[in-house]
Amino acid sequence: MTTSTRAAKASFTLRSLGSHCAALALLLPVLLPVQGNAAEAGSSVKSEHSALPTPKAAPPAVAKDWAPPDGKIGYVLWHEVSWGLRETADHKEECPNGFNIGPREQFAEEFPNDGKKRTLLETQLKREAEIWMPDTSPDKFPFYEATGKYAIGVDLDGKTTPEDFESDDGRKGIDNQLFRVVGCVRNYRQEGELGIITTKWRAQKAFNRVTFEITGVDSLTNDPDVTVSYYRTLDTLLAGPTGNFVPGGSQRVDARWGKRFIISAKGKIVDGVLTTEPFKEVQVPEDGMGDPAINIFKSAQLRLKLKPDSAEGVLAGYIDVEQWYYAMNTAWATHHAAYGQASAASIYKALRRLADGYPDPKTGENTAISGAMDIKLVQAYVLHPETEKVAKTP
């Protein structure tokens, strides 16, 4: 090494001693191979530093005093997390007796391999008929209802009864009888395939696209008076390179074939959480295997944690039992339901037994069951159709 090179290196080192230790650590990799004069070393450091990526500004974690443009923001549904299931790691709290058995296990119990000859009509067709023509007679098999103190949902009736739950954040009177029905059925839990498949259907099938739009918003943190509208919309979801759905897409309102879905309710935002007054009825389209169905939430309420780019929470209400059961069976053949040990006939009996809303005026039997859909949404711009211009009669 020449004298001039040593001097240059020493000069460079002395100038660097006053730098912040973090900056010094950044420079070390380029100091080691230095050759030539100090100017070359400085040039090398500069180019190495400029190659570091500049971090992008992340969206705010909370909507701190932020108001959306024109006072409106939309959120499109992309993920049905569960039917309002609060699950614990060892399931002992909600399912102390274990999980319910499914179609295959029930078939084996009802028709044991005991050498007795049985016809197809007496076995498989009999059980399929029980699915499509269910009744409320006592179940031949034990059915374990979910229990415990806590559940996901909202207080739908403004009362606190022994059947009600409590939320994890301390809200009393949570109405969620559907949790009792499906909470110990594997297909509806995290290990079941329902969540994976329904999210895929929700994203891929245009029939299932629904969007909420909040208008009159002065702040996404606190606003005592907003309007929440619900639409069936027409556009695909905007996916990113990792497969997650990203904000900023657009959704056109289906004002023709989706007119039946359009409904609004008043709401408020407190500490970033949107709650609504009851919608008369929210209809959620469910197309799984190409046989579309509609889940009907009566006296529906929203409770969503809002962010500028996303929202998550629950859509709760009194869910029409027959429609929910029909949607389940059109989406899940016995073969697929058996993967998650979901026996349709047993579930129907539990639905009718635990139904707690909208009694039939003739029979007095409840036709709806309290429940909640645990949902995730991503921000989208809602595009309304232009008003059709019609020539006036002179």
UniProtKB/TrEMBL annotation:
Residues 45-64 are annotated as: Disordered. It comes from the Bacteria. Residues 51-64 have a biased composition (Low complexity). Residues 1-38 form the signal peptide. Keywords: Signal. This is Uncharacterized protein. It comes from Hydrocarboniphaga effusa AP103.
